[in-house]
Hints:
The protein is α+β, with helices and mostly antiparallel strands. Helix content is 26%, strand content 32%. The protein starts with 6 loop residues before the first strand and ends in a 7-residue tail after the last strand.
Amino acid sequence: MPKKIKKILIANRGEIACRVIKTARKMGISTVAVYSDADRKALHVRMADEAVHIGPSPAIESYLVIDKIIAAATETGADAIHPGYGFLSETRLLCELAKKAKIIFIGPSAESMEAMGLKDAAKKIMDEAGVPITPGYHGKDQDAKLLKTKSGEIGYPVLIKAVAGGGGKGMRKVEAEKDFGAMLASCQREAKSSFDNDDVLIEKYIQSPRHIEVQVFGDTHGNVVHMFERDCSLQRRHQKVIEEAPAPGMTDEVRKAMTDAAVKAAKAVDYVGAGTVEFIVDGSGTLRTDGFWFMEMNTRLQVEHPVTEMITGLDLVELQIRVAQSEKLPKQKDIKIQGHAVEARLYAEDPANDFLPTGGKINLLKARGERRRRDRGFRVDTGYTSGDFFPLSYDPMIAKVIGFGPDRTVAIDKTIDGLEDIEIYPIKTNMAFLENCLDEPDFVDGKVSTGFIPENLTDLIPFDTSNDLRAYALAALRLESDAYDNVKTPFDNPSGYRFNLPKKAVHLFEKDGDVIEAEILDSLTNSAKVRVQDQTFYFEFPTPENYVLIEEVLNDYNSWNFKVKHNFISMKYGASITQLKRHLPTGESLLNSSNALTAPMPGKIIAVNAKAGDAVKAGDPLIIMEAMKMEMTLEAPRDGIVAEVNAAVDALVTDGEMLLALEKIENEK
């Protein structure tokens, strides 16, 4: 008699933890969340029936400590552990210790994990099982001269890959023999640092490669099925950005060959649970039955599993739980493809600044109910809600937006709709970058490869509107509308916008230490003229339409909306978001540089060296914070008395947040 799981501990955080909790709740199963200091108030903690604190913010001291996970499961009486993805999801020891503690591990056996854990061993197993593998060298002899010789025999270009690698780490493309030695050394250094294993393998580099993977599932009754393929070719630095199912250009003949190979791979290691067999595919022309090769197998649920759920109607987390309860999988003939799905990964990162991670307090201002979203053709999986703080300690993914439709064109459009449905303030994201990818003509035409993003990067990086003087012109009108008409934007007044203001109203903004002046020269009933620096812009406000019609010089700025908070204006158009900082002279705001210390970027408070009432002198080190793995000291801007301190040690703060204020000096107005 299969054992029914009653309580699951989720050994993970964020979006995937919330995802597992939703399915468990649907199945009537209780859940236990684990959390670090950074996640004390996280959504997955609030959603779970119980929560256990497991340590400090760094994952190596919390989410990656197996003993703490097992202890939390034992203490709460959980009879199963779901590892999610990342962290410990492919760690044999967690599986073994869970089994020893008589706790069900919702995933494959330790033996299957080990068989597929090292790329060289996995390829040998696949070769013996008749699964096509990429031409290359997968031997144990790691002599540099031998590796160079083998590369010459394979033929350049080649890929050097760490046998224990993953996530793009420990991988180098070598174009010519003269570059081999330096690339090998670089790859081995990174592999040793990341995986404590510097062994490598050599593979033929496939021109115009595509990354296509097959979702497989095995049960305890010896059944293995597939749920078709996903195309994950759009990658940046070997990290997936946009995924879709089914793969563009896939034929029935190639699909059968690829899925048969994937099932064969799973059976070769007696696989149980959800897994993904990844193939490198020759994308230089039409897909061929002899044009794909085994790359690796991920022995867990994948981040991109929702696109498979959308086209099959299956809940893969539910299937994981049912398989762990020794239930049988659906028969292969009953698993069908319906429609097309596209997933975009929304990250807290700044594409215009080399994709550096960002963080801070977030607001999902247009978060809609799950049912309403699905009715509109898209789904959003996230681990955050309005008001949550996005930590810098972990993966920068905020959400996954999955569009679905009867065909690929509709699915792409729905994914864009889903992205534009989310408004995030004030942190920067890759939202506009994702929309640019989805809009790129080659992507729309299905011409995808792993080189798509690097080859088109210049066109895909969103334009920084904070460098566009037109943005300051419209922002000035936005501030005037607040001051005089109490409407949210110049185009929110259904009866027609009317300024009728005195001429030469001036608004000041800050950019890279400079002050930008926006001067409203004329503000009449139906029009306005604004000068910014040495350029003049013209606006027209037709009545009674509920929008601003702007002359061609302002291009897309007829559809921007705004949010004003503290000294910042957040401007959004479609998926493009920018922030403009107001310049407020001394006395107008507590947040000006002479009266207060504000966080220059998101980060963590390391030390606070003052309290309210303290007398300080200019240059005194008042607050020390850590941001982007660097320490920075915030000094007193002038002599004075501390009025208030809004920072505490270990607190996480957002860009522009006021940390400490000085008492105003007497001659300030």
